[in-house]
Amino acid sequence: MSPLAFVDIDGVVADVRHRLVHVEQRPKDWEAFFRAAHRDPVHEEGVALVARLAEDHEVVFLTGRPSRLRRPTERWLERQGLGGHRLLMRPADDRRPARVIKLELLRREARGRVVGAVVDDDEHVVATMRQAGYPTVQATWEARAAEDDRALLEAQESEGRT
């Protein structure tokens, strides 16, 4: 059985910068933020990494996106040539920080399996996974302005949105 590779979507294979405007404002417009996800450009670096991992790992996409976005997310992945992999998503109404929910989902999915890699752009998720003993890769190719990083950090850590 191949080792598992858990790969985040937003900031790793999907470029979310065009929709950050919706979560920088007050109040945040989460519906608009998620509605715009189908227009995310692809990060070629992330796609190339997924292709390399798929050669000898079973790739599982592990995202903080809410499960109600399963179909649009699957369609986006298909259009980018990334379909056919399992997709783990934040359960409905689960607002815990991304680092907490992702670790829980990974542990549940990986029971009895070897985890070969965890790829995420969120430094808190990467630190949590590393502390739990999983090999990590931090995706750094989505350069964001400081205010964009703050908006995403708040979304992931305080509001449990992505």
Summarize the structure in words.
The chain is α/β, with parallel strands linked by helices and 162 residues long. It has a single domain (4-157), classed as HAD superfamily/HAD-like (Rossmann fold), CATH 3.40.50. The protein contains seven helices and five strands; from the N terminus they run E-H-H-H-E-H-E-H-E-H-E-H. The chain has helices at 21-24, 30-35, 44-54, 70-79, 98-109, 123-131, 146-158, and strands at residues 4-7, 58-66, 86-90, 115-120, 136-138. It has a five-stranded parallel sheet with strand order 3-2-1-4-5. The protein is globular and about 45 Å long.
Brief descriptors of the model:
17% strand; alpha/beta; Rossmann fold; 162 residues
Which secondary structure elements does this structure contain, and how are they paired or packed?
Layout: E1 4-7, H1 21-24, H2 30-35, H3 44-54, E2 58-66, H4 70-79, E3 86-90, H5 98-109, E4 115-120, H6 123-131, E5 136-138, H7 146-158
Parallel strand pairs: 1-2, 1-4, 2-3, 4-5
Helix pairs in contact: 5-6
CATH class: Alpha Beta
Structural class assignment:
alpha/beta
Number of strands: 5
Termini distance? 31 Å
Query: How much β-strand is present in the residues?
Result: 15-25%
CATH topology: Rossmann fold
Gyration radius, in Å: 15 Å
The helix/strand series, from N terminus to C terminus, equals: EHHHEHEHEHEH
